[in-house]
Amino acid sequence: MLIKRNPNGIDIPFASEITPRAVFESRRAFIQKIAAGSIAGGALLEMATREAFAATSGTVQKLAAKANPAYVVLDKPTSYKDATTYNNFYEFGTDKESPARYAPKMQTRPWTLAIEGEVRKPMTLDIDSLLKLAPLEERIYRLRCVEGWSMVIPWSGYSLAELIKKVEPTSNAKYVEFVTAEDKEMHGLRRPVLDWPYVEGLRIDEALHPLTLLTLGMYGEVLPNQNGGPVRIVVPWKYGFKSAKSIVKIRFVKDQPRTAWNLAAPREYGFYSNVNPQVDHPRWSQASERRIGEDGLFAKKRPTLMFNGYSQVAPLYAGMDLKKFF
Ligand code: MTE
């Protein structure tokens, strides 16, 4: 993946990464209250997200979703502004700012998602049908980019397994492929950065894992296009590039899909791409990460956690050499 660096080789920081004093102080008071036991359960979740939600766009359609405390990390959510202006969406340009500038021009209604391949009940669903397919849940997930930064985002959606159940995969369905749209507004498609369209894939058991989220919203609103609107996948224990944006097709297949990043640089981006601090990228370490918007210029990086902290997925890889299947 391309990373912009300044002439000294240091990632160029954003001004917003320096936490304002007032925010820092209120957070410290908040943490002290948690430690003292005066804040509990649902209140904790509500307070943790309030700050991040305070600055949502205010113009976008709201999306009601019930918080699912089983899928909430307590790290402070990234601000809406950072999450929607620092993006990777190469179809709209390879720098971090272009997706927010160009993606909003893409028409997301009407939009259909075709589910095909090794299934008994192939179907094509529009966004309204997807919104009604299962109750929307709000889940706060960490997202760890392979480039070495991370965010914490409140997504709205439901387990992809809900959709998979409806199409009834056959016994030949060993893998699932996700295909991103090729839209006229995506000027990035004119450059052969990747073999378009953007394709990602999971093994069927990974796709069925309850953590894998069919995502239709974030921060209580419909998903902004730069974040993969109107519908994307979020796989929180894998590097961010496995979470394909603005998808139009989900295909059930027998053989391991040829995914865009794996085709472009097979030595650097494996099919599995589980977050793993012990397996470095050939050009940089994956042992630590920079939390967008939270850490100041000279702040220490956070250690990266195995499976991005989602240790419940470990049984999916029992007996596998994760250095080989990186
Ligand atoms: N999906 C498509 N179609 N095109 C992309 O360039 N970038 C990936 C992933 N999904 C990408 C994509 C990468 S590298 C990351 S880190 C995440 O999207 C970023 O998601 P976010 O912008 O919502 O944080």
Question: What is shown here, in short?
Answer:
The protein has 326 residues and is an alpha+beta fold.
Protein architecture, described:
It is a single chain. Helices cover 20% and strands 22% of the residues. The chain is globular and about 55 Å long. Residues 3-25 have low confidence and may be disordered. The chain has helices at 21-35, 41-54, 80-85, 98-102, 127-132, 160-167, 204-208, 260-264; strands at 66-72, 112-117, 123-126, 137-144, 149-159, 175-180, 199-203, 213-218, 221-222, 232-234, 247-253, 288-291, 302-303. The protein has 326 residues and is an alpha+beta fold. It has a single domain (63-317), classed as Sulfite Oxidase, Chain A, domain 2, CATH 3.90.420.10. The strands form 2 sheets. Strands 1, 4, 5, 8, 9, 10, 12 and 13 form an 8-stranded mixed β-sheet that branches. It has 8 helices and 13 strands. Residues 87-91, 143, 145, 151, 180, 198, 227-228, 240-241, 243-245 line the site of ligand MTE.
Task: Give the SSE layout.
Layout: H1 21-35, H2 41-54, E1 66-72, H3 80-85, H4 98-102, E2 112-117, E3 123-126, H5 127-132, E4 137-144, E5 149-159, H6 160-167, E6 175-180, E7 199-203, H7 204-208, E8 213-218, E9 221-222, E10 232-234, E11 247-253, H8 260-264, E12 288-291, E13 302-303
Parallel strand pairs: 1-4, 2-11, 5-12
Antiparallel strand pairs: 2-3, 4-5, 5-8, 6-7, 6-11, 8-9, 8-10, 12-13
The structure holds ligand MTE.
Ligand MTE binds at residues 87-91, 143, 145, 151, 180, 198, 227-228, 240-241, 243-245.
